[in-house]
Amino acid sequence: MSQYVIDNEVEVLDQGNDTGGGEFEREKVPASKLKGWKSFVGMYAGEHAAGTEFMIGPLFLTAGVSAFDLIVGLLIGNLLAVLSWRFLTSEVAVKNRLTLYYQLEKIAGRKLVIGYNLANGILFCFLAGSMITVSATAVGIPFNLEMPKLTDTMPNSGMWVAIVVVIGVVISLIASKGYETVSKAANWMSPIIVLAFFVSGIVALNQLGVDSFDKFWGIWGEGGEPFKGQTKFTFWHVVIWSWFANGAMHIGMSDLSVFRFAKSANSGWATAAGMYVGHYMAWIAAALLYAVYLQSPEAMTYLNNGEAPPVAPGPLAYNAIGALGIIAVVLAGWTTANPTIYRAGLAFQGIMPKLSTFWVTIIAGTVATIAGLFPAFAMKLLGFVALYGFILSPFGAIIVFEHFFAEKFGVTKNYAEVAGIKFNTSVFLAWLISFGLFYFISVQYDVFLSFVTLPAWLLCGVLYLVFSKYTQKATSKK
Question: Is 283 contained in some domain?
Fold first, then answer.
C-alpha cells in the first residue's frame, strides 16, 4: 500500500472513544502514527531473542531431538511462521488498522469477545509470568538462590518470591507506558541480548570441544530418549511446533494490535529477525548451554537418580559468559514480558474499555507477576505454548476467512456491528466445534496438540462462513 493511499484512507474514527492512553484501542491508527519496518525489526528481534529462548533451547534437548530434526526442522518451521505473519496478519492489519480485540468485537459481538479477551489476557499473563521466572533465575545468582527444578510447580523460598515481585513491578511499569515505550525498550535491549546469545553459543562450543561441523552435529546426533515426563520430539514435532509456537500471534491474529501501526504489509517480513535470530540462532545457542551443563557432576547426579536436571537460564548463561550472562537473561525476560503484558492489557481493556491503558496494563502485570511465582509455567513451556496457540488460533481464522472470503460467500462483514447483536452464534459454534473435535482427537489418540492446530484453524474458518451464510440469510428474512 502506498503512502498516498494510507494518508487518504486511514482516518481516525470514534475520536471520543480514546481512553486517554494514546493507543487508539477503539479507533483506527491515524497516518501520523504509522511506523516503518525498522521499528518492527527491533521489537521482534528483542521479543523473540528473549527469555523464552533460554527455556525452549534446553527443552529441545530434554525432548531427545536429533541434529537433523532440530536444525532443518527449525529452518522450515520458522519460515512458515514468517510467511503467516507477512501474508495473513500484516495484510489484515494494514487494511483495518484495529486491535484484534476491537476487530473481533465487530464480528463476534461484545458479550462473546468478553470471554475471549479474558482467556487471551490470562494466557498472555501466564506467558509473561514465565519470563519473569526466567529473569528471576539470573537475579537470584548473587543471592545464591536455589533454582527451580524441571518438575517444580510452587515457589521454593521467600527470597524467590521477593525477587519475582520486584522484577514484575519494574516490567509492569515499563509496559504501562504504551507501545512507544515498549518498542524503544526492545530496540535498546535487543542488540545486547542477541550478542549475548551469540557469544554464549561460541563459548559453549568451545567448552564442548567442538572444532568441526561433525562434532557440532554430534551434540544431538541421532537423538535419544526424552527425559522423564517430556515428550519425544521428531522432525515434524520441531517443524509444526516452531511454526505454531507463536500461532496465537500470527494465524491467531493477536499481532493485529502491533502491525496496525505499520506503514505497509511488507513490515511483516520484519518478523524474520525474531524467527532466525531468536527462534533459530538463540534456541540452538541456549541448547548448547544446556549441553555443557549436562556434562557437569551435578547434572550427572540427577541423571543417575533418574531425574531431569534443572533448566535454569540464569546459571546456564552465567557459566558461559559471567556477568554479561546475568544481564542478558534479565533483559531477555523483560523484552518478552513487556510486549506480552502490553497485549494482555489491551485484552483486558476489551472487557473494561473505560479504564486507561495504564491501569489495564498494571492489572495484567500483577497477574503476570503472580504467575511468575510458580515455576511450572516456565518449566512446562513447550506444552503450555502448544495449548495456548491451539485455544486462541481458531479465533484468528474467523477474521482471516471473513477478510479474504466474505464477499465470495455473500457474508456480511462485521456482522455483529451491522446487525447490532452482542453474541454472534456463528462465531461461537465454529470455534466450539473445531476446538472440541480436535482437542478430543488429541486426548483420545495421544496426538501432539500442535499437530491439530492447523486443522482446527481451517475448520473454524470454514464453519464460520457456512454458519454465517445460513444465520445471516435467516435473519434478513425476519
Answer: yes
Output the CA torsion sign for 299, 135, 375, 81: negative
Say how far apart CA 136 and CA 371 lie, in whole Å.
13
Range(s) of the domain holding residue 65: 39-384
Is there a contact between 435 and 394 (Cβ–Cβ < 8 Å)? Answer: yes
411 DSSP assignment: P
Here the CATH number for the domain that contains residue 117 is 1.10.4160.10
Contact between residue 172 and residue 366 where contact means Cβ atoms under 8 Å apart: yes
Residue with the three cell numbers 518492527: 40
- CB neighbour list of residue 132: distance below 8 Å, 6 or more residues apart: 164, 167, 168, 171, 333, 337, 368, 369, 371, 372
For residue 184, tell me if it sits in a domain. Answer: yes
**Domain count along the chain:** 1
Q: What is the pLDDT of residues 153-211, one digit of tens each?
A: 888 888 989 999 998 888 888 777 766 666 666 667 778 888 889 999 999 999 999 99
For residues 451-460, one letter each, b for 16 or more C-beta atoms within 10 angstroms of the residue's C-beta and e for the rest, the string is: bbbbebbebb
Q: Which three cell numbers stand for residue 62?
A: 530434554
Cell numbers that stand for 347 in this block: 485484552
For Cα atoms 302, 152, 150, give the angle at the middle one, nearest 5 degrees.
45
**CA dist., res. 102 & res. 109, Å (int):** 10
Residue 123 in any domain: the answer is yes
Handedness of CA 71, 298, 332, 197 (dihedral sign): negative
pTM: 0.83
Q: What share of the chain is helix, strand, coil (3-state, %, to 5)?
A: 75, 0, 25
Q: What is the pLDDT of residues 379-389, one digit of tens each?
A: 788 888 889 89
In a domain, 261, yes or no: yes
